[in-house]
């Protein structure tokens, strides 16, 4: 049986940060696609989030995925459908369903982000 939240999940990939030599004694940062995951990503439309956005905070999101996906603080993921990048701002272990539950979800907060 498919759970309602699973209907909204779409392909995403972890973005892996790598520092490489620039050939001149310094380093540059490269981002490459890593492991894939399925996630439902929803923009936070609360009044508090809207006020924060007006004050210059980036757009805020909730990312829902399976509880065993290891999303950690400051992980970066990309939504495949449109290439949008998100940086995780919480830890999934702080907000996931118990292992005995039929509902298999974990949630994190995230912000819209630009790869640097």
Describe the protein.
With 116 residues, this protein is mainly β. It has a single domain (6-19, 29-112), classed as Bacteriophage SPP1 head-tail adaptor protein (Thrombin, subunit H), CATH 2.40.10. The chain has helices at residues 4-7, 47-54; strands spanning 10-21, 27-43, 60-65, 76-79, 85-88, 106-112. It has a 6-stranded antiparallel barrel. It is globular.
Query: If you average the pLDDT, what whole number results?
Result: 90
Largest sheet: 6 strands, antiparallel, barrel
- Secondary-structure element string: HEEHEEEE
The CATH topology annotation reads as Thrombin, subunit H
The count of DSSP E runs of length 2 or more, i.e. the number of strands, is 6
Q: Give Rg in angstroms.
A: 16 Å
* CATH architecture assignment: Beta Barrel
Poorly predicted sequence stretches spanning 5 or more consecutive residues? none
Assess the beta-strand content as a share of residues.
Answer: 35-45%
CATH homology group = Bacteriophage SPP1 head-tail adaptor protein
Question: Concise description?
Answer:
The chain is mostly beta strands and about 120 residues long. It contains two helices and six strands. The chain has one domain: Thrombin, subunit H.
